[in-house]
Amino acid sequence: MLAFFSACKKKPYSTHSNLNDSAFQVSKTIVDDSFSVDVLIDKPKGTSFDVIMVFHGTVTYDSLILGAAQNTLDGFKQILDRKDMMIVSVAYPEENLLMGDNIKYAEKALLWVKNKAAAELGINIKKLFLAGHSQGAYVVTRLNTMHETNGVIANAPGPLNLVFRCKLEEDGKIENGIVCNLLKNKYGTTTVNPDAYQARSLLKFTSGYKSDILFVQGLDDTPIQLTSWPLFKQKVTDCLDCKKVQVHEVEGFGHQSLFENSDAKVVFNRFIAER
After folding, report:
1. Can you state the percent helix, strand and coil of the chain, rounding each to 5?
2. What is the value of pTM for the model shown?
3. What is the pLDDT of residues 57-104, one digit of tens each?
4. CA distance 6 to 25
5. What is the fold, at CATH topology level, of the domain defined by 2-161+201-273?
6. Where are the domains of the chain?
7. How far is Cα 86 from Cα 76, in angstroms, rounded to an integer?
8. What is the rounded radius of gyration, in angstroms, for the C-alpha atoms of the chain?
9. Nearest to 93, CA basis, from 63, 50, 134
C-alpha cells in the first residue's frame, strides 16, 4: 500500500493505481511471504525518470529508521543538482540484527525498484543509482557486489573493520555499543573468533563491484574510521575485477563531508552526470 505523507493532502493511492504526472511524496511497504521493508518515494513532476535509491546511516533502533530515511532523502535531495530525479529512500531495519544481516531488506527494495516500481507507480525508469551514508554506504557497497546499476556513491562507508572496532570495546578503550555486543553474544570475542567479525567488515567486500562506484571520505573523520581507511582505499583501487572505482578524499571535513563540502558535491553530481 502506498500512503501519502501527512504533508500531502491528497488521498492515498493503492499500488495498482495509475498515478498521474504530478509531483508527490509517498511511503510504501514492500512485502513478501517472510519479511517487509519500508521505502519513502519522492517523485518529481513527470512520468519518466532516472532514480537514485538512498540509504541512511546507523540509528540502532527501528523506531528511528523512518525518520532517518526521511532525513537521508532530504539530505541527498539538497545536494543533487538535478531536480528531475526520483528519490527512493530505504528504511532498512537494524534493531537486533547482526551487522550485515539487513542486506536482504536493502536488496528487496532494490529489486522492487528494478522489477516492479515502474508498473506499480505508472512511470518509466531510465537509469538507477545507489547512494548511502555511513552504514548506508556499507549497504550500497555490498549491494554493488550483488546487482548491477548505473552507479553507486558511498560516503564514509563503514564499519570497515569490526575486529578493530569491537576489540577497542572489549579492552575498555571506547564505550560498548549494540553492534559489537550482538556480535559478541553470537560469536564470542574478537580474540576467540576474529574471522566471524572480519566476514561482516567492509574490508571483506572490496572486489567484484558490478557498477562504477565513487567513495567519498572526509579526512577529519573519527579514528575508528580513518585507521582502516588507507587499507580499504588501497584494496578497492587495486581491485582487478571491479568496474571503475573512484575515491575522493576531503581535507578538513569529517563523517558528513559529502553533504558539507562543495567540492565533494561537485564530484557527486559529476559522477551521476557522466553515467
Report:
1. 35, 20, 40
2. 0.93
3. 999 999 999 999 999 999 999 999 999 999 999 999 999 999 999 999
4. 10
5. Rossmann fold (3.40.50)
6. 2-161+201-273
7. 11
8. 19
9. 63
